[in-house]
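re: ur question from earlier - yeah i can do the single chain one, its not a big deal. heres the input i used so u can compare w yours
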Amino acid sequence: MAPIIPLRELPPGRRARLVPPEEGQVIGRRLQDLGFVPETPIEVVRRAPLGDPVEVELRGYRMCLRLAQLEGLRVRLDEDVP
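and the output i got, formated as tokens:
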């Protein structure tokens, strides 16, 4: 079974898949609207010099988000993520 880690810990250049949040947590409506739904491939492109914000790529576009906005999002480190 591939390890599951918080999205905020995903190193730049590594691709993974979003997984459902832990029991009792939810993915915010705005993030869902932007494509942050389980099984979506995602990559951390780069981090700002002090680590915040983070540039991520998913569904063919990139965006910068604060680490606080990524709170609760988890990913599965699959080797077969395109």
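The first strand starts at residue 4 and ends at 6. not sure if urs matches, ping me
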